[in-house]
Structure prediction request, 171 residues.
Amino acid sequence: MNEVSDHLDYGLTLVFIGFNPSLRSGEVGHHYANPRNNFWRILHKSGLTPRLYEASEDGELLKLGYGFTNIVARPTRGAEDITREEYRLGRETLREKLAEYRPEVACFVGKGVYTEFSGSSRVDWGLQPNSVVDGIHEFVAPSSSGLVRMPMDEIIGIYRQLNDYISKEEF
Prediction:
């Protein structure tokens, strides 16, 4: 299965970071392509995007100042299929990417993604008080997976906080 290419560039406002691509994303080569994943609907309903985008348009979000990457590049059925070694290598690679591209905000799509990256055992939603990569604001948002049990309005509300933060900040 092919890896899904990152969409990264210099000068981005926001980079979304997931665990790893789904099998569907690996098949089609686009981020958040599983039809049961709510990512694109959440972005639109929270005001982060001006319209509802399709997964096939993920590269277009670079024009909005948004990029995409994952802590692990290999597509799997679920995060439970990621090995400890893949996480170890992924953490190093992700730190290097963030240090190189220096987005204003790194948004971790799921608490588990952030705990794997940061080594913190407990994190809250929203802006994190201490950054792993100096100078980059780190924001933890709920996973957009259809398996998440949190009410959709609550998820959208947390992403709306992200939208409010990046809209008000003078980076």
Remarks:
- The chain has a mean pLDDT of 94.
- The chain has one domain: 14-104+112-168.
- The beta strands are 14-18, 66-70, 105-109, 126-127, 137-141.
